[in-house]
User: Fold this.
Amino acid sequence: MAVLAPKSRGGCVNGSGWDCFAMAAISTLGSWGIGPVAAGGSTRLNNNSIPRNLIDDVIPQPNYDPQARLPNMEVRMWYDPRARQINTMGPRTEEFARNIVAQRNALKVQARDMMVDRAAAALLDKTRPIQAFDYYVQKYSAQGYSGEDLWDQIILAGTRPNEDISKMYIPRR
Amino acid sequence: MSDVKMLFKKGIVWQKAKGENGKWYTDFNGERFTLQMNDFPDEPLFTVFSDSDAVNFDDPPLMWFIPYE
Assistant:
């Protein structure tokens, strides 16, 4: 049986793509009795519970990264839909705005930790640090927002990545 | 005037911009190009500018050298 390697290890998010194909293929192998126990134990790969040794043996993984870190483009593809899915339906209060900023910042921390280029990630944290709630209060207050309008701006900004991935330039490597 | 995307086909050694972390420059074909690190992942990681153009991207070409430190 010819099995192709998954292009990304970002997880089977939307029910399509190579990740899902690979997981389905491995599931089939499991039903044939080639399970994690037979293969010598189970290890996790990027939270999707695929036995790593099984993947290494059956599906070629020439660029396998034990930290499951990804190229920047794939990190943004992981981050973007999650940031947009933060639930902003709630009261326009400081408490709720703080909650939204905290959720977005948690995603940003996780995304930067996923970057395979650790030198770039380290510089990023120096030059463009992840901002706390007070930063956004100052930013939008300076633009003239106050009261519920201020919380509304902060809440909406929490799900608004600044550049659509589809507009990105992807240089040939 | 040069097309910024032309740079992506060349081996480029970027120089750190003095006094500005996260910014670099290079001179190519008599023109100065600037490379800037953005607020990733909300924004693309890099933007490269010429006098008349700008291009966003996430992963620099393997032929580029960007001194991060």
